[in-house]
Design goal:
The chain is built from four helices and no strands. 76% of the residues lie in helices and 0% in strands.
């Protein structure tokens, strides 16, 4: 089977985390230790959980559990995007783009969760 870095979910998750990283560089300094840290942490956790899941793919329950964690972190990223939009730190256009990325990642993760044997 290849490497976790070859998974579409990982590639899209990594692109999202880099978008979040670059986006949050321009957030107010007052948000550095709250919203910025939370957004960066949750978006990074998506990829780290995918990497961990892939290394546990021989054990379907562990694989599914870690992918579920990745999906949970992805959902948390969406919450922080909601906050960023409500605080006018990002445009609606940027929000829609990033939220659509999150939704696509979620679909990919849920496919993997539903079909763990395809990744064993």
């Amino acid at each position: 089977m290849g490497k976790f870095r070859e998974l579409i979910a990982y590639k899209k998750g990594f692109a999202l985390l880099m978008d979040v990283f670059n986006l949050t560089k321009d957030f107010p300094k007052s948000e550095q230790y709250s919203l910025v840290d939370q957004m960066r942490r949750s978006s990074r956790s998506v990829c780290s959980s995918i990497g961990e899941a892939y290394k546990k793919r021989r054990y379907p329950n562990h694989f599914i559990s870690k992918l579920s964690d990745a999906d949970m972190e992805n959902g948390e990223t969406q919450v922080w995007l909601d906050v960023a939009l409500a605080c006018n730190y990002i445009s609606e256009e940027k929000f829609n783009y990033l939220d659509a990325q999150c939704e696509e990642i979620s679909k990919l993760l849920n496919f993997m969760i539903s079909h763990p044997a395809k990744f064993a």
